[in-house]
Hints:
Blueprint: H1 3-21, E1 26-34, E2 39-48, E3 55-69, E4 76-88, H2 90-103, H3 117-126, H4 132-142, H5 146-154, H6 156-182, H7 188-197, E5 209-210, E6 224-227, E7 232-238, E8 247-249, E9 258-259, E10 262-263, E11 268-270, H8 272-290, H9 292-299, E12 302-311
Parallel strand pairs: 7-12
Antiparallel strand pairs: 1-2, 2-3, 3-4, 5-6, 6-7, 8-11, 9-10
Helix pairs in contact: 3-4, 5-6, 6-7
Amino acid sequence: xxxxxxxxxxxxxxxxxxxxxxxxxxxxxxxxxxxxxxxxxxxxxxxxxxxxxxxxxxxxxxxxxxxxxxxxxxxxxxxxxxxxxxxxxxxxxxxxxxxxxxxxxxxxxxxxxxxxxxxxxxxxxxxxxxxxxxxxxxxxxxxxxxxxxxxxxxxxxxxxxxxxxxxxxxxxxxxxxxxxxxxxxxxxxxxxxxxxxxxxxxxxxxxxxxxxxxxxxxxxxxxxxxxxxxxxxxxxxxxxxxxxxxxxxxxxxxxxxxxxxxxxxxxxxxxxxxxxxxxxxxxxxxxxxxxxxxxxxxxxxxxxxxxxxxxxxxxxxxxxx
Length: 321
């Protein structure tokens, strides 16, 4: 038998010997010095209350052993030496805190008890058996611990995870918006407006939210007045989808010819509905600029640098989003 296999056999026998030594008391043992002259073990005993069965005290025992070959075969017996030490109860916790303070690696730690939901979820993730719903549950549990959220945010993996979650969220929002836009029964106020309020990023900027005040100038009611971090305004004029002749062909040949296997492009122009909507937004921006001082003083909104977007979607283009 090789030295490695002999050592492994002695370690296994020693752990079993200690387990049998303490009988029914719950114990966990690790061999911290596997020979060859002496074998050092650390055992944590969990001693229950005989009447209730609840944990009464924890005891940590450190022992040094000499391995004695058995005459029965390959197994080993063990003889305890004079070198031994133990602590119990609160002493175990003091020792744990001391070791954590002296030997801790940089990072944020949290003690996770065996048998808890978080421990079960972590176990599945470590084995690579974590289904999407398991990972989602793990994130929900982590979100309840501020220190774990901070550690995740500080790591590069945490940034990648946040980006992946945000990307998936935006895909789901676009799919929902597409369904509403392509639904001929969808309505501007009832369907499109609530959905677009959830995805202001689609307008090409970063916004801190929507102004509660939508009537900034006399006679004008803004559909979605978005605020940028610098306090300036971005006006979104919302129009219904599926408007006939929103985009149509302007002149060009009656029969498009094939060029290099593809039909030649036809000149297109936007219809009257687009011009009307754009003119409406231009009027908004003009009046916002004219009343900039009043708006800034009363509503704390910067209207001079305001920009605007008008939303339409022609039924001819199924890939408009």
